[in-house]
């Protein structure tokens, strides 16, 4: 079943407006959070959002989500699946119901992974459609499920995730807590997904937007299909999905909160994997900050920059001495390329401010000595065909 033509036209109009809003955001430096806020605001102000509201800080439910989810049965891959993992978000309720009606094994992650990775939904014998519908709700997931252990022989054929924003290229932005990315990485670690496992997301048309590639990080999950109330989009995404847990980005706090993560860490440690955590001795990687953001998105308190905004730092000689400016960046340069080069040279900063339109980046270090050492290491650095210009403090290249 599809939406009526009038609703379809309205959805397409809303999608166009959504694209315009995001393109306006891209006129300056843009972050994942700025895209989230614009999507949430737009869905609320145009009454696209559905219960639970407000949709801010959630995977947003929307009018037409049930029908959008039902269109997954039009995908050839769905017919051949046996085990399907579907996130517990409200807009995915229709997909969970369809999986149960199709007699597939339905796996749903436990909330915030507190009690395990996921549960298997087991409807009562002779369940009617009404009972199956209850099983597909968040309450049903709690009442009609059993936990799945790490040693179970689970092999997921299809993963369905919620999104706040997604691009036609398959690049995805969640609500910012990273659980979908971590869940997929954990499934890789336990052997529950394989190269042929496809990832699908269900969103409203206005959530399909352009996402700058510079915002993507190695741990971000990409999607193969996007289902909206009006379209089925095959992304053809070639960007690799996570190949396992990046322990250097896992915090001790996260490990404390997620028991199953501790179990996987012990398993990988016994197998000889480097499982050094984010803040542990021996971790040479800096915590991954958002490398592209607007000034109002930057934290007001950071090590070495307590209580000052970025703009005020630029007028303070004490802190200017702790910055390095890289100019003459190629037009096609990406943040991840620069980050990789900085890691290889041993010049990783506390924070990196990307100024792509000006073909430069500002690197922030703990003190002037660290900045001077980094500037020395970076002399002669090339990205693509461009030799980068390296300068200390307030000197800037245009």
TrEMBL record:
<dbReference type="InterPro" id="IPR002698">
    <property type="entry name" value="FTHF_cligase"/>
</dbReference>
<protein>
    <recommendedName>
        <fullName>Methenyltetrahydrofolate synthase domain-containing protein</fullName>
    </recommendedName>
</protein>
<dbReference type="InterPro" id="IPR037171">
    <property type="entry name" value="NagB/RpiA_transferase-like"/>
</dbReference>
<dbReference type="InterPro" id="IPR000504">
    <property type="entry name" value="RRM_dom"/>
</dbReference>
<feature type="region of interest" description="Disordered">
    <location>
        <begin position="269"/>
        <end position="313"/>
    </location>
</feature>
<dbReference type="GO" id="GO:0005737">
    <property type="term" value="C:cytoplasm"/>
</dbReference>
<feature type="domain" description="RRM">
    <location>
        <begin position="323"/>
        <end position="391"/>
    </location>
</feature>
<dbReference type="InterPro" id="IPR024185">
    <property type="entry name" value="FTHF_cligase-like_sf"/>
</dbReference>
<dbReference type="GO" id="GO:0003723">
    <property type="term" value="F:RNA binding"/>
</dbReference>
<dbReference type="Pfam" id="PF01812">
    <property type="entry name" value="5-FTHF_cyc-lig"/>
</dbReference>
<dbReference type="InterPro" id="IPR035979">
    <property type="entry name" value="RBD_domain_sf"/>
</dbReference>
<dbReference type="InterPro" id="IPR012677">
    <property type="entry name" value="Nucleotide-bd_a/b_plait_sf"/>
</dbReference>
């Amino acid at each position: 079943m599809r939406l009526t033509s009038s609703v379809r036209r309205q959805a397409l109009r809303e999608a166009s407006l959504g694209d315009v809003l995001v393109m306006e955001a891209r006129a300056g430096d843009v972050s994942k959070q700025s895209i989230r806020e614009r999507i949430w605001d737009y869905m609320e102000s145009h009454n696209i959002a559905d219960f639970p509201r407000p949709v801010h800080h959630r995977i947003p439910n929307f009018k037409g989500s049930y029908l959008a989810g039902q269109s997954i049965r039009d995908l050839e891959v769905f017919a051949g699946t046996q085990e399907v993992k579907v996130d517990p978000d409200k807009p995915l309720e229709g997909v969970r119901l369809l999986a149960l009606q199709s007699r597939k094994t339905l796996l749903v992650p436990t909330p915030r992974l507190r009690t395990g990775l996921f549960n298997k939904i087991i409807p009562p014998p002779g369940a009617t459609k009404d009972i199956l519908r209850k099983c597909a709700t968040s309450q049903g997931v709690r009442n009609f499920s059993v936990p799945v252990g790490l040693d179970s022989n689970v092999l997921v054929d299809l993963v369905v995730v919620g999104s706040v924003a997604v691009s036609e290229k398959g690049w995805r932005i969640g609500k910012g807590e990273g659980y979908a990315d971590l869940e997929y990485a954990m499934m890789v670690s336990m052997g529950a997904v394989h190269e042929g496992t496809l990832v699908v997301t269900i969103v409203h048309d206005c959530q399909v937007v352009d996402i700058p590639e510079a915002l993507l990080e190695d741990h971000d999950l990409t999607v193969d299909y996007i289902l909206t109330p009006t379209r089925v989009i095959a992304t053809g995404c070639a960007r690799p999905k996570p190949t396992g847990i990046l322990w250097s980005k896992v915090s001790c706090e996260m490990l404390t909160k997620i028991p199953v993560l501790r179990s996987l860490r012990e398993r990988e440690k016994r197998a000889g994997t480097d499982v050094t955590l984010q803040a542990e001795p021996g971790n040479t990687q800096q915590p991954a900050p958002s490398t592209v953001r607007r000034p109002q998105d930057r934290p007001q308190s950071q090590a070495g920059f307590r209580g000052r905004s970025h703009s005020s730092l630029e007028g303070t000689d004490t802190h200017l001495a702790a910055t390095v400016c890289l100019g003459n960046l190629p037009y096609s340069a990406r943040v991840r390329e620069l980050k990789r080069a900085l890691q290889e040279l041993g010049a990783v900063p506390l924070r990196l401010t990307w100024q792509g339109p000006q073909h430069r980046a500002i690197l922030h270090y703990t003190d002037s000595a660290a900045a001077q050492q980094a500037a020395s290491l970076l002399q002669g650095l090339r990205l693509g065909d461009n030799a980068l210009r390296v300068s200390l403090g307030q000197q800037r290249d245009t």
